[in-house]
Amino acid sequence: MRKILTIAALLCTSGVAVCGQTAGNDSVCGKAKAIDGVEVSAKRTSGNILSDKPLQTIDKETIDIMGFHTVADIAKKFAGASVKDYGGIGGMKTVSVRNIGAHHTAISYDGVTINNTQAGQVDIGHFMSDNIARLSLALGENSDPMQTARHYASAALLSIETELPRFDGKDWTFKSKLRGGSFGLVSPTMSFWKKLSEKTVVSANATFMRADGAYPFELKNGRLTTTEKRRNSDIYSWQGEVNMHNTFDDGSTLHSKAYYYYSERGLPGVVILYNNDTKERLWDENFFAQSVYKRSFGNRLKLNAVLKYTHSWNRYEDINVKYPDGRLTDINRQNEYYASSTLMWLPVKNVSVAFAQDFFINTLGNNIETQPDPKRYTSLSALSARYSGKRLTVNGNIVATYAAEHVDKGDRPADRKRLSPSLSASYRLIADRSLFVRAMIKSTFRIPTFTDLYYMHIGNTGLKPEKAVEYNAGMTWAGKTGRTLSMQITVDGYFNNVSDKIVAFPTTYVWKMANFGKVHITGIDATMALGWHIAKGFDAELTAAYTLQKAVDKTDAQRTSYNKQLPYTPVNSGNGTLTLNTPWLSIGYSVNACGERYSMSQGTDEYRLEPYWDHSITLSRKFKLRSCALQVAGSIYNLTDEQYEIIQYYPMQGRNWQLSATITL
């Protein structure tokens, strides 16, 4: 790392980079007069304050200062979000909002949903933060009428927005980052932006990561505690994407993207006393290509159109004497063909009406001879209307879903048809103050996945869709004290009713998927953000989020789990961040706190998971040199070396560190 920083400094100070074409005197390599500037400092009111439904956002500046490296790291900072982490650098990470389930949470990448019809859950640990400009979490869809029907149909939406190209007077920009850390972590990243013309820009970025993942953890067996090492937790991954941004003479835009991800990883599995030998391996390959076209027809009509193709492949392998040939190999391939269009009309002032139509085809094939080769045809139609006045905002929509399936072998489920309405409103209580009350009711459902329906002897083609109704009411406020102190506070109470929940239910011989569950979820989400402009060049920001949640099983009054808290659901959880910017150093501190919870509904000591506090700190500094910018950062995670588990028997990493250096030319 010392050699890397030395080389980076020499490159910057020697000015070996060749400057691109410039306009006027804005080149950093040309001669230009220094002009005294006037510093203007202001903080825009958060979208969560103005929104008629809970909306939380974290921007790139905060991501960099806090030392977040994956989408999963960032998502843990949202109130109401639960990230299930199966341990290790390469462990699967999924997000659920307000305990409705990861299947109900849509993941959007630059405005287009990422889908996994086989499992229904997207591993957000795949996505690195290096090229992310903003991450936002909305309850239900966000407030933009120009979104796809899939967004309208979701119970919650996690939106990933990547960086747009920046040039600072040149026609190209190059950025390189090298990250290294504990447990053999090495991860280089490169990004390149190029202006082909005034109306066409291309960008590309690529990331490689490897780690052995052999971190120590404590294993308790009664009164005996030993220190063991996590085995078979290595990962090798490659990720890259290419983008093209086009602006046409009529003002319309076309953004095209091709994305590729490949990984090979060990699956360490659960920790079993005196048996740390696991030989499970997983290979993943994901590719998608998407294009988003936007055009305005005058001031009253707007069009968005989306085309996307997705291919996913994974291979699971386990070597064990329990298999007839001593080895089990499962290979799965998914394809999705997706098209969407949204048309918005502004008939009168303050009123918008939008119609979104999505159509997509999903296929699944694997190496099992008796598998049915299912194909799913889905149509989503969403009609929305929005009124936005000086004090009152009202937003309503209804989503019509139609899904049909075809199989080559066996039974197929009946066609599904359903209408899902939603209504939300926000009202400014005082005309010249940022004090709002808001309320929302939203109905959603999720169609069973291919795994739920067809997997071996467990699948059940008679499953009904899992339904959820969300209720939310809250208050938001933003204010300032003088010119140096600003504060934003939100408090939302909610109730979720989930019925026909799809669960694995034991029968006489094997487990079967069944509509067995009914769940009531009641809670409060509260957030606070405090900004303080201390002096010129000195700024501080404090954020905090807290969730109080009671999620209970209402399925069967005769069962021992009735009225008990759902597994892996803490009653109390929260997080906080503190950032301090100075002319010399940026400091970011964060903490995640989680109360006790249980891995099974019985709630006995055998299944109890201890509360934990996870502290992290990051120090970073930016250097503006002759021909480039250099940023160095160092982070320590799990500062107190606390031993804890998010999923039982999957121990998390103890204290670990990372260093990074980023050069921008």
Q: Main beta sheet, described?
A: 22 strands, antiparallel, barrel
Cα gyration radius (Å): 26 Å
Dominant shape: globular
Roughly what fraction of the amino acids lie in strands?
over 45%
Enumerate how many helices there are, as a single number.
6
Overall helicity? under 10%
Stretches where pLDDT is under 50 for at least 5 consecutive residues are 1-44
Number of strands: 35
Distance between the termini: 20 Å
Structural class, by secondary structure, is mainly beta
Q: Averaged pLDDT, please?
A: 86
Overview of this protein structure:
A hairpin with a 2-residue loop joins β11 (216-221) and β12. 37% of the residues are buried. With 665 residues, the chain is mainly beta. It has 6 helices and 35 strands. The strands form 6 sheets. It has a 22-stranded antiparallel beta barrel. Strands 1-6-7-4-5 form a 5-stranded mixed sheet. The chain has a two-stranded antiparallel ribbon with strand order 2-3.
How does the SSE layout of this entry go?
Layout: H1 2-14, H2 47-50, E1 55-59, H3 60-66, H4 71-75, E2 81-85, E3 93-97, E4 105-109, E5 112-114, E6 132-139, H5 149-153, E7 156-162, E8 172-181, E9 185-197, E10 200-211, E11 216-221, E12 224-229, E13 235-247, E14 253-267, E15 280-297, E16 301-319, E17 327-345, E18 351-366, E19 375-388, E20 392-406, E21 416-428, E22 434-446, H6 450-454, E23 466-481, E24 485-506, E25 511-535, E26 538-553, E27 572-581, E28 586-594, E29 597-598, E30 608-609, E31 612-624, E32 629-637, E33 645-647, E34 650-651, E35 656-664
Parallel strand pairs: 4-7
Antiparallel strand pairs: 1-6, 2-3, 4-5, 6-7, 8-9, 8-35, 9-10, 10-13, 11-12, 13-14, 14-15, 15-16, 16-17, 17-18, 18-19, 19-20, 20-21, 21-22, 22-23, 23-24, 24-25, 25-26, 26-27, 27-28, 28-31, 29-30, 31-32, 32-35, 33-34
